[in-house]
Amino acid sequence: MITLLYGRPPAVFDPPADAVQTSPVIPGSTALESVPDGSVQAVTVYAPPGVLERRYVLAHALRALEEGGRLDVMAPKDKGGSRLGKELKAFGLEVIETAKAHHRRCLAVRPGGPLPAVDEAIAAGAPRIVPGLEAWSQPGVFAWDRIDPGSALLARTLPGLKGAGADLGCGYGALATVVLRSPPVTGLRLIDLDRRAIEAARRNVPDPRATFEWADVRSLPETAGLDFVVTNPPFHDGGAEDRRLGQAFIRKAAGLLRKGGVLWLVANRHLPYEAELDAAFKRVRMVADAGGYKVFEAVK
Q: For residues 287 and 134, what is the distance between their CA atoms, to the nearest angstrom?
């Protein structure tokens, strides 16, 4: 039996151990969009919180299921779980809904024939050029339909960089576009945990100096050869604030840089990254403090 899994449900839900992982934020996973229509017997989904993203995932799961295939979906009650039953019924499903461990869980069997709203949900959550940004993006990507104010502050603050560098957590490529305006930049690695962000960045950053990596920054090999790193590190994991993410990005940046290399980092003002920066770098200065964000230059 071919079974798909989207995301990492809590162990209490007994996620299938032999399933094919399809989450775009688990590097190496199969793209759910690439699974042929009606080719799988079961799909388990740990549903994302965003409405457009969640309906897109559910629609693709239903598209991939064969007639009589089993759909098992769960989400925290306060992150979309309370809406799951209604959303699945809108696709024409009969739903069995239960509650467990502060989650809602919905079970359904895919009926035969076309289902209402599937194509609409796929179109609404698909990659597109976002009006106003004039850039490719997709619901689910960080700040997918706007310019993040932290990244914007960093972009305004950056000097002209030179040499080889990396953009850690590159998103759809907004900051990379600014970095590559500097002719002395010889190469830029765009790295992100989200496959959708990397795919958008490929479209948005056609510069031949750019390379693209779908990877977890925290597990990158530390080659210690880069001249610069720019980053607006994440500080949420699964919706909960986790300051260790940004701290891990700082340590990784130090491991990637040569001696004398420079890190340019933007962070929310309340995040306590100064101690981590001081421990990993020879010289640290705050260059900007505006709009709830602070920008640091740190030299290794």
A: 29
